[in-house]
């Protein structure tokens, strides 16, 4: 049963990449602006900007077909089928937190966002020692800010707070 | 050459470079020792920090990290039974068995001594091999380089993991991602979907931190709930007696030297590197041993053979990267991007145009060998503490490092989005058992190959 699921997922991936490569092959002229452009005085197709995207789409198509054809030859399980729903929920929550963190950095600022992110992520993940978490979060965010600002002369996002 | 090396020694024997090597080695040892974290990931996270300092401070830091991380992986292989890096998987077979017998200290010290010898062989091969090879490479034209890079692309089969078909698909996707940006000949935007931010192409650091850093965090999030990698147990239970037993190691000197030579040779071949050489060395050590039955049951010979081989790769793997500008594996791809960020384009002319810097780097590689031994020996008892760091706290900090490292390169928030997307792609790849290395290697190689093809 699990092995069938594994093959199904692999097949889905192969079909998605195959469709994407066919789409890219036919639409690469639209995706490469100035497709008609060639070096003046040459008719060399390889110099056209569309040449490599088309070549790559052909290679991806062949690789997808190869994966699709060789699916019956494989017998081993893939990790996706051995992971339970609860784990996927945790990963989705983690991704959401990271996304919110990236968004907040630009608007609130690096230091505050980092402190809030580390505390939230650690707490949600099951580690409840608040004192250590808060101390580490403040230390990491401040030390990184100082190293980048005064050591490497790079300004991390400041936002509306710090 | 000796003159070059002596003047390079003067260049690197300053407190900044020595501090950078020491810091890199210690950080590498720590990162390598934690299961799930590898030298590759450490370099991906910390390489942007080196872009803003002198090449002879930043690159030696990364070299120290590479060497420390490669040895550090053996610590978790021996203590926890989980290899810190793929290169230490062979060490686990006998190392963990020795730990069960209460000989973890002996196994760790044996691994350290073997790593030192292996590392030294790889470094010597780099110092003397790279300049000699550069004399040949300097005669190469675009056609020869094109052929060489094409050959390197075929090496992707060695890093494809369990399925070659999946590895090839990952590689072709890597080529597609590399084509995003401006066409090098006509200056035409390619596959940018009208986004101005994509005209410069995808930032390799955003790609690497996403594929290695964020992906690993997502994988670890699944396991959250257990607070530490090992429980706070008395260290004597784990380590046993720690005493330098050179007699035991010298008994296997022949195995160590043979494994070091294997690691050096395989390491110098693009693409094969650190994951293959320990297994070859282990297999040969078993075949030529007087007591082959003891392998897999906790013999020191089974620990020293793979450890000498995987550390010998460190120096040797830099040869094709420095001489031909072809990264053999992910670590050298990251080192190459760090060199390029410093304005040093790897290739045969690098050894001519920046002779002082390159010989300085050679000397740093040698210094890192000694740093590995000194810090590896001094910090042996710390590993127990490192393995008790709560996972959730550690991986939250890693996300912060991913963000800072990616943002710092170009101060671009768009790169953070790229990092996030590639974190998800990397996670999907891991779940579908697709190796990430082919994607990244073909991404780096495709950028070079397209420009070389147009010159041909």
Kindly describe this structure.
- The complex is a heterodimer of chains A (162) and B (456).
- Chain A has helices at 2-31, 51-70, 79-82, 85-107, 110-124, 130-151.
- Chain A is mostly helical and 162 residues long.
- The longest helix of chain A has 30 residues, at 2-31.
- The model of chain A has no long low-confidence stretch (mean pLDDT 83).
- With 456 residues, chain B is mainly α.
- Chain B has helices at 2-12, 15-33, 39-50, 55-79, 89-100, 104-137, 142-154, 164-179, 204-223, 235-239, 246-251, 253-267, 273-288, 301-316, 318-324, 330-341, 350-353, 355-378, 383-386, 391-410, 413-431, 437-455, and strands at residues 181-182, 189-190.
- The two termini of chain B are 34 Å apart.
- Classes of the chains: A mainly alpha (162), B mainly alpha (456).
Question: Could you give a quick summary of the protein structure above?
Answer:
The complex is a heterodimer of chains A (162) and B (456). Chain A has 162 residues and is an all-alpha fold. Chain A has helices at residues 2-31, 51-70, 79-82, 85-107, 110-124, 130-151.
Helical coverage of chain A, percent range: over 70%
Query: Which class of secondary structure composition applies to the elements of chain B?
Result: mainly alpha
Biggest protein-protein interface? A-B, 76 and 61 residues
Topology, number of strands of chain A? 0
């Amino acid at each position: 049963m699990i092995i069938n699921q594994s093959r199904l997922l692999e097949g889905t991936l192969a079909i998605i990449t195959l469709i994407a490569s066919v789409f890219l092959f036919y639409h690469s002229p639209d995706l490469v602006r100035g497709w008609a452009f060639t070096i003046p005085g040459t008719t060399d197709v390889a110099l056209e900007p569309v040449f490599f995207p088309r070549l790559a789409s052909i290679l991806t198509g062949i690789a997808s077909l190869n994966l699709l054809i060789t699916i019956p030859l494989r017998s081993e399980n893939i990790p996706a089928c051995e992971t339970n729903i609860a784990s996927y929920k945790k990963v989705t929550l983690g991704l959401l937190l990271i996304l919110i963190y990236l968004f907040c950095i630009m608007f609130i600022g690096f230091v505050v966002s980092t402190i809030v992110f580390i505390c939230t992520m650690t707490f949600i993940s099951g580690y409840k020692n608040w004192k250590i978490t808060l101390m580490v979060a403040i230390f990491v965010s401040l030390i990184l800010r100082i190293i980048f600002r005064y050591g490497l002369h790079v300004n991390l996002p400041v936002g509306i707070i710090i | 050459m000796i003159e070059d090396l002596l003047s390079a020694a003067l260049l690197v024997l300053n407190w900044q470079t020595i501090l950078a090597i020491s810091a890199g080695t210690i950080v590498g040892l720590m990162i390598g020792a934690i299961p799930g974290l590898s030298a590759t990931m450490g370099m991906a996270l910390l390489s942007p920090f080196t872009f803003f300092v002198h090449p002879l401070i930043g690159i030696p830091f990364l070299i120290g990290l590479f060497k420390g991380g490669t040895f550090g992986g053996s610590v978790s292989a021996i203590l926890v039974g989980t290899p810190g890096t793929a290169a230490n998987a062979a060490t686990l077979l006998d190392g963990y068995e020795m730990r069960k017998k209460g000989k973890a200290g002996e196994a760790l010290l044996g691994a350290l001594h073997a790593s030192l010898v292996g590392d030294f062989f790889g470094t010597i091969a780099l110092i003397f091999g790279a300049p000699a090879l550069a004399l040949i490479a300097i005669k190469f034209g675009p056609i020869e380089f094109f052929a060489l890079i094409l050959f390197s692309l075929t090496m992707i089969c060695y890093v494809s993991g369990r399925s070659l078909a999946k590895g090839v698909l990952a590689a072709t996707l890597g080529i597609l991602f590399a084509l995003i940006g401006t066409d090098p000949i006509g200056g035409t935007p390619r596959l940018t979907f009208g986004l101005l931010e994509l005209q410069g192409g995808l930032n390799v650091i955003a790609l690497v931190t996403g594929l290695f850093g964020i992906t690993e965090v997502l994988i670890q999030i699944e396991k959250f709930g257990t607070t530490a990698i090992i429980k706070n147990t008395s260290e004597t239970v784990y380590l046993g007696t720690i005493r330098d037993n050179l007699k035991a190691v010298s008994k296997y000197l022949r195995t160590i030297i043979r494994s070091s030579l294997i690691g050096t040779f395989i390491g110098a071949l693009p693409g094969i590197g650190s994951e293959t050489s320990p297994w070859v060395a282990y297999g040969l050590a078993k075949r030529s041993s007087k007591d082959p039955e003891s392998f897999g049951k906790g013999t020191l010979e089974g620990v020293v053979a793979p450890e000498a081989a995987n550390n010998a790769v460190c120096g040797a793997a830099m040869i094709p990267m420095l001489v031909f500008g072809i990264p053999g594996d992910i670590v050298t791809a990251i080192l190459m991007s760090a060199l390029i960020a410093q304005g040093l384009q790897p290739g045969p002319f690098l050894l001519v145009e920046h002779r002082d810097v390159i010989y300085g780097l050679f000397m740093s590689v040698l210094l890192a060998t000694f740093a590995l031994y000194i810090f590896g020996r001094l910090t042996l008892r710390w590993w127990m503490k490192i393995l008790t760091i709560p996972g959730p706290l550690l991986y939250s900090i890693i996300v912060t490092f991913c963000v800072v490292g990616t943002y710092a390169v170009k101060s671009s928030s768009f790169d953070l989005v790229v990092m996030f997307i590639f974190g998800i792609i990397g996670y999907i790849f891991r779940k579908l058992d697709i190796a990430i290395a082919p994607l990244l290697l073909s991404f780096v190689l495709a950028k070079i190959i397209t420009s070389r093809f147009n010159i041909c």
